[in-house]
Amino acid sequence: MARKPAASSKTVASSSSTASSRCKIFVLDTNVLMHDPTSLFRFEEHDVFLPMMVLEELDNNKKGMSEISRNARQASRTLDDILAHAGDEIEGGISLETPSSKLATGHLFLQTEAISSELPQALPTSKYDNQILAVVFHLQRRYPKRSVILVSKDINMRIKARTLGLAAEDYFNDKVLEDTDLLYTGVRELPADFWDKHGQGMESGKREGRTYYRIKGPLCSHLLVNEFVYQEGPQPLYALVRNVSGKSAELETLIDFTHPKNNVWGITARNREQNFALNLLMDPEVDFITLLGQAGTGKTLLTLAAGLTQVLETKQYSEIIMTRVTVPVGEDIGFLPGTEEEKMAPWMGALEDNLDVLNKTDDEAGDWGRAATRDLIRSRIKVKSLNFMRGRTFINKYLIIDEAQNLTPKQMKTLITRAGPGTKVVCLGNIAQIDTPYLTEGSSGLTYVVDRFKGWTHSGHITLQRGERSRLADHAAEVL
Fold first, then answer.
1. Which value, in Å, is the radius of gyration of the alpha carbons in the chain?
2. Where do the CATH 2.40.30 domains begin and end in the chain?
3. Average pLDDT for the chain
4. Boundaries of each PIN domain copy (predicted)?
5. How confident is the model at residue 7, as a pLDDT?
6. Which of 87, 190, 341, 377 could potentially form a cystine with 194 if both were Cys, beta carbons 3.0 to 4.6 Å apart?
7. Contact at 8 Å (CB) between 221 and 243?
8. Range(s) of the chain covered by CATH 3.40.50.300
9. Phi and psi at residue 17, in whole multiples of 5°?
10. How far apart (Å, rounded) are the C-alpha atoms in residues 232 and 187?
């Protein structure tokens, strides 16, 4: 959708009024409704027009259990609910103010007559997309004083519309951020003069082997709970913001997971961000963690190491449950045989690779010891498909959602709300590698939860910066 259009709305028919001429008409493509079923209510004071072909396509896509089918059914139910309260107002437009609870003040128009508009001969009229373009042509001629804009998630449809001289825009309302460079990283470098401005009247103390600093100053109001702060130099500081109250904040020093004595299942942190991530993963007070980073930054390895330690050593959780979106990078290889776990096995190569690394961390165990450990680990890790998550409740589990960048905000909500008492949820992903159609870096479910959960007492986020896989992988990530 266009970003925050202006003005106030009457109806399409009242084009003579100045207010109405400032009000735009947005013609929605089917994929917008299937992407966001509530999109009808997202155009504020402007009018929305639905061509008959959109209703046909919704009908064709309503069968099935996919997310698209669910959204098509929900969009149809929303339309049915709007029409149920419309009475005989369909021809003159249906006010969206009441159905949207005053979120939208424009009108909804449905195509109530046959529209035959001249399209270039190269465009076959049998195609749904071209019939929708014909509707936009018709509305443009009928209401010359008003802006008629096609809204579509289909890039080729928008290109085709612009080629024909029609206004076309993407649907942006589901975007969390305009620029993903502004996404919360979970880390803040303290300025060089930090202690000069915040050190006066500082209180410090020790609690459970950790040092606490209570500071006051201008930067405190900008800090978020569970945000990591650091300062390099001769006396480096690595700390976590535990509490923020007005212009004062409480900082807590970290456990140094780069030191071998603090290893987690034989794994030590190789850089600053990995150290921060392990502090979050091993913290029993943090229930929800998001780890972002490109390939090879150690997201899965750190998460599994922390999970195995807390399941098998400290017995904090009963088992690890791992799931991921099954979106192939290349061509789909078709149906897979076997049980749910066997079907998910080809998607869980990352799990197997990391378990191989974790299983080799104990050099003194020998082959027999390692084989026994492998069987023990396998018995405590369950691989589940996303398709069967609705209605489930995970109690006292360590839930890992891998490749979370391919989830929509709605799917993410479905998964996170599965968490019962004593469950920790860890989301891993790289928003630069999205394989799901119509999802972008700004509208991914992973971006959505990072933005919404920041500053909550029981959640934490880290963006891992440095690749630690190999010098070849790091160089390839830079130059390719």
1. 27
2. 180-253
3. 82
4. 24-159
5. 36
6. 190
7. no
8. 264-479
9. -75, 150
10. 13
Q: In this structure, are residues 427 and 415 in contact, taking their beta carbons and an 8 Å threshold?
A: no
What average pLDDT does range 309-332 have in this prediction? 77
For residue range 231-246, what is the model confidence (pLDDT) as tens digits?
988 888 899 999 998 8
pLDDT digits (tens, 9 = 90+) for 45-94: 899 999 999 999 899 888 887 778 888 898 999 999 888 877 766 777 88
Every domain range in the chain assigned CATH 3.40.50.1010: 18-169
**Residues 180-253, CATH architecture:** Beta Barrel (2.40)
Class of domain 18-169: alpha beta
Q: Are 311 and 318 in contact (CB under 8 A)?
A: yes
Query: Structure pTM?
Result: 0.75
224 alpha carbon, distance to own chain's centre: 20
pLDDT for 256 equals: 93
| Closest CA relative to residue 344, chosen from 393, 381, 398 | 381
For the domain 264-479, what is the CATH superfamily, name and number? P-loop containing nucleotide triphosphate hydrolases (3.40.50.300)
- The phi and psi torsions of 104 (rounded to 5 degrees) equal -120, 140
Which structure tokens are listed for 13? Answer: 């028919």
Residues contacting 80, CB < 8 A, separation 6+: none
What is each CA distance from 270 to 169, 226, 265, 357, in whole angstroms?
A: 45, 21, 14, 15
Residue 204 · residue 213 · CB < 8 Å: yes
Q: Are 412 and 446 in contact (CB under 8 A)?
A: yes
Of 235, 240, 233, 234, which is closest to residue 257 (Cα–Cα)?
240
Residue 321 CB-density burial (10 A; 0-12 exposed, 13-18 middle, 19+ buried): buried
